[in-house]
Write a structure and sequence with these properties.
disordered N terminus, globular, alpha/beta, 10 helices
Length: 298
């Protein structure tokens, strides 16, 4: 796949979606360097499909578009058109640069929603591991800036605990004091005070109301299991519609989600895709049949 000139990135993405082929893009963002992306999925002419901005996995310091392939293909297989983002990595680009680039890309995607997803297409955020953190953070920013509307956030094994001290993570690392997740957090946050910022650590936000509905999925032996399920509980307590599940058949999560050698992603691929389909369906407004009069209070 060769990069497409940024001036025609939206048109190229739309052509790729119409043909059902994967294509690399270069997206121009106001006041920033162009950012790389890859489009997945297919939209038949006249159809309206979910449009997903996806953040690949890693630990804030590693990963790229190839690492986003597994989850992006699962989302596309569930009926979405997916734009997977090559967001900047720490330590060269620590917080808040990755989420500001992510938010700018969300604004770009929203402007192109009719071209890529069809008239009335809804826009979603999705990510795994560090990408799940970024997706949750961009959802917070979109709420706080009152634009654009986000239909849902899909969080797969999201990194949400900079203390790296949950029981599930300690078990995964055999209680090692130093691990790749802790190291990634350190480079991403760059200074201790950033650990208190809700955009850096969405799970620490004191205001979780009025956010988009969430789908939170983790594996049974997932290092991120406890922090993800805690966040799902806090979202529910704030009145957010949340679907969460611990998938017993999801092995080697979160690594399997972004392992470039694992083209099938996980043994529970069909289950994950069904979760995606159900979430898209549940968060899509039901169309009123033609000729049906709206209900009015008597």
């Amino acid at each position: 796949m060769s990069p497409v000139p940024s001036s025609s990135s939206a048109e190229a993405a739309a052509r790729a979606a119409a043909q059902g082929v994967e294509a690399d893009l270069s997206i121009e963002l106001p006041g920033r360097e162009p950012v790389g992306a890859r489009v997945y999925g297919q939209r038949a002419k006249g159809d309206v499909v979910p449009l997903v901005l996806h953040f690949h996995g890693g630990t804030f310091v590693c990963g790229g578009l190839d690492n986003g392939r597994n989850v992006a293909r699962l989302l596309a297989g569930a009926g979405a058109v997916v734009v997977s983002l090559a967001y900047p990595l720490a330590p060269q680009s620590p917080f808040p640069e990755p989420i500001e680039v992510g938010y700018a890309a969300l604004e770009w995607l929203y402007k192109q929603r009719t071209k890529l997803g069809g008239k009335g297409a809804q826009v979603y955020l999705a990510g795994e591991e560090a990408g799940g953190n970024l997706a949750a953070a961009v959802a917070l920013i979109a709420r706080d800036r009152a634009h654009p509307p986000v239909a849902g956030q899909i969080l797969l094994s999201p990194m949400l605990d900079p203390c790296a001290g949950t029981a599930s993570l300690r078990k995964a690392t055999n209680d090692a004091a130093e691990c790749r997740w802790a190291s990634g957090w350190e480079k991403y946050l760059s200074c201790p005070s950033n650990a208190t910022h809700p955009y850096a650590v969405p799970s620490g936000s004191l205001r979780l109301s009025a956010l988009a509905p969430a789908l939170v999925l983790v594996g049974q032996d997932d290092a991120m299991r406890d922090e993800a399920m805690t966040f799902a509980g806090r979202l529910r307590a704030a009145g957010i519609e949340v679907t969460s599940s611990v998938l017993p058949s999801a092995t080697d999560w979160p690594k399997a989600l972004y392992d470039t050698e694992n083209t099938a992603c996980v043994a529970c691929e069909a289950t994950v895709q069904q979760h995606f389909r159900d979430f898209f369906s549940a968060t899509t407004p039901k169309a009123v049949p033609k000729g049906t009069a709206p209900n009015h209070p008597s």
